[in-house]
């Protein structure tokens, strides 16, 4: 699982928080599912930009997942303006699921 | 690096008030159909072209199968075309026309009053299908994928089916066709069964099953083969029926459809084999079982066609054939897929505003597992008893099977309404 960032420490904290946001269908969190592509912190303007994807374009649960990610980061980074950007380039693939995610799905 | 889409592709879900009425209408139709099955039991010697059988068949085909597929399609088409549903208003109009037209047509068959109720019902149903077709065509993506082509083609076949039905209804009072309705019934029925139900279920199922199983298996080439075989077989059947009408030639389209179904079973099996998610829930298991249940009507169709060569039509086997399609394959897939789709639609509506705050139930918590188990058990027993009773001409088995199917429909309705009217605790 690769998440691009410009601030390793805060990225680790953010990813730990995002492990509580679940894909409702799979019961697997968005981090282990590999939906998070990048977390960029702009310390000057106090902005946190999250670049993420969905397993399917126009996924019926997509809006809910995106809002969950935003709400979770907003709650725990109160001084930051949180922005979530969706991308499908590159598209999500099963290879993005983490080892932990695969163990969960294989259980 | 990533290409970002600032507008996002996440907020384009079809509103639940568009989709849910179709589900509820379908659930009630299933209850009505099983009630009619109990109230006017089929006798082993009955002909399929009888008022009660026609009424039950149309409740199942239109009220149950078509309405729930229309509802699910309004939800799933945005996923397939990767865009928005063109119009919610058209979707509401589709529902209204079908919801009024279906009971009128069924009442007309049940009382065999082929006057205004049948004609108005048939016109309204055709209007509903035409509106749905417009909505689907206008929702299409710039670049079609195989699943979208399946859905569009299936809807065209559905319109052909309902239009043929309209002609048959008018033919009762004003002769429009060369032959009577009984003659054209196999054509009308198979346009709907293979053209609408088989193509649609294949197109949507081939997209959903890998999603639900988290399977890496994708073979668009195989799906195009299935598409060609179903459409080729059906178009061949239409031409042979209209211009040759000899039972011996029907084996050609039959072989084509059989090959398509075998390829579809292979596709589903490979999806299952290459899945990442090991645990398969009961809803998906029932849906996968329904794919293999397609072989029952096919086997019966082979026997019916062989018997046509050597003797006259075996109406009992034709009845079992129809029953195994509408109460067998189609019902099994709907019973499974309802609880794999409806809870998500409702969950998304009820809990979206609580996103990220924690403490929300999962979509699977919205329906009762006990009711689902009861539904599945009564369904499988009811289907086996009814089918067996028809085959061995045992009235008691038929009545018991019908009663179990009524229990199944009742439990299914309880669970469906429980999900649809879920309120946060």
Automatic annotation (TrEMBL), chain A:
Q: Which SUPFAM superfamilies match?
A: Fe-S cluster assembly (FSCA) domain-like
Domain MIP18 family-like, first and last residues per copy: 15-84
Q: InterPro entries from the xrefs?
A: Fe-S_Maturation_MIP18, FSCA_dom_sf, MIP18-like
- Tell me one Pfam family matched here: FeS_assembly_P
- Name of the protein this chain belongs to: FeS assembly SUF system protein SufT
TrEMBL record, chain B:
Keywords recorded for this protein, A-Z = Membrane, Transmembrane, Transmembrane helix
ATP-binding among the record's keywords? no
- Annotated membrane-spanning segments are 22-42, 48-70, 90-110, 116-136, 148-170, 190-210, 222-244, 250-269, 289-311, 323-350, 371-391, 397-414
> What InterPro entries does the record tag this protein with?
Cyt_c_oxase-like_su1_sf
Q: Is Membrane tagged as a keyword? A: yes
Name of the featured protein: Cytochrome C oxidase subunit I
